[in-house]
Write a structure and sequence with these properties.
By secondary structure, this protein is an alpha+beta fold. The protein has one domain. The chain is about 40% helix and about 15% strand. The protein is built from 5 helices and 7 strands; from the N terminus they run ββββααααβββα.
């Protein structure tokens, strides 16, 4: 995380594999080497979150707990409650997944409409895949904290309104 990596132009053609440019501060980042700016959150590769920043790890744990609670709510016939908790928890896209009967993942909950993305990358060969680096529009720590609070609030809604069926 250094200013010496800040760039003026978009040398995306000259980037090494695994490097990207932050769309917010224009810093050269290399998430796999843990060299990233204050906006970097994680990389989505083949649908999975990899190389999360330390600022985003807590949010991912909360999102994972949230997905488990939503799954329990859906299994108990409380899909409408899960929908409202997701919508009010700042994940309207994830709420729509629940409303349409799709499975929900930690990645769906962790992402938000204001997440910025880098350049889409694809690799060939035996370890082929595709993905994109994801960035927060503000400092990742503040963004992740705001998302975490929203998810904790939504978890509390599920916990209070769902009957105890144990």
């Amino acid at each position: 995380m250094s200013d010496e990596n800040e760039i003026e132009d978009d040398p995306s053609e000259e980037l090494e594999e695994g490097q990207d440019i932050c769309p917010v501060c224009r810093t050269l980042v290399w998430p796999g080497a843990m060299d990233y700016c204050q906006h970097y959150l994680w990389t989505r590769w083949d649908g999975q979150i990899i190389w999360p920043s330390s600022e985003a790890e807590g949010l991912l744990r909360i999102a994972n707990d949230f997905v488990a609670s939503v799954y329990d709510a859906e299994e108990g016939g409380w899909a409408a409650l899960a929908y409202v908790a997701l919508r009010d928890g700042g994940s309207p896209e994830a709420a729509e997944f629940v409303a349409q009967g799709y499975s929900l993942s930690t990645e769906d909950v962790a992402d938000a409409p204001d997440t910025k993305i880098g350049k889409w990358r694809e690799t060939d060969g035996m370890l082929s895949g595709s993905g994109v680096a994801c960035f927060a529009p503000i400092a990742a720590a503040a963004w992740a904290e705001r998302r975490s609070v929203a998810l904790k609030t939504a978890l509390a809604v599920i916990g209070k309104q769902r009957p105890n069926i144990d």
